[in-house]
Amino acid sequence: PLLASAHESSCIRLWSIQGNLMKELLPFAGHPSGPLTVLCTDIFTKILLTGSKEGYIFCWNMASFLEDSRNIKNAIKEELCWRAHASEVVDLFIEEEKNVVVTASIDGSVRLWHARTGYYFGFFGQARKFDLTDTSRLILPSDVSDFSAIIKEKSKHTEKKKIIYPLMLDRDK
């Protein structure tokens, strides 16, 4: 078992069931995240999704980390980031059978997205039916202008590291 917490500092903390801190993560530095407002996982806890106050969704792959959390090579990888709403995301969940993420915002909209690519399918209340099979149409909601960003393997994650900066006066410098 693993507990996850999302924080106003954009930090995600993973805890053991005994209350020990296992890992601290920050979303990739190239994308603005802002305070995190919501998180969820898939049924097997291999995918972690977080939503932010600025309307962004971040997708993390935790599969290798959960296999052996003590192995440094088994990192949690941020795979995808997209702007889902122009305002705060207040709820989200992943529907694995259809490979869909559902997001809700304080603006009152509920939207559907492809879970692996961040492609926009539409919003609840639209006149047309959802077409969950066509992920090639690059459309966006009217209030969002950023396409999804797939985080490359070589991109460096911003993991919170414990660095000690002693406060010492160096008169020579």
From TrEMBL:
UniProt repeat feature WD, residue ranges: 82-118
InterPro entries noted in UniProt: Beta-prop_IP5PC_F, WD-EF-hand_domain, WD40/YVTN_repeat-like_dom_sf, WD40_repeat_dom_sf, WD40_rpt
UniProt superkingdom: Eukaryota
Gene3D superfamilies listed in its UniProt record: YVTN repeat-like/Quinoprotein amine dehydrogenase
Stored SUPFAM superfamilies: WD40 repeat-like
Keywords in alphabetical order: Repeat, WD repeat
Pfam families: Beta-prop_IP5PC_F (PF23754)
Domain IP5PC-F beta-propeller as annotated: residue spans: 34-114
Identification of the protein by name: WDR64 protein
Gene: Wdr64_1
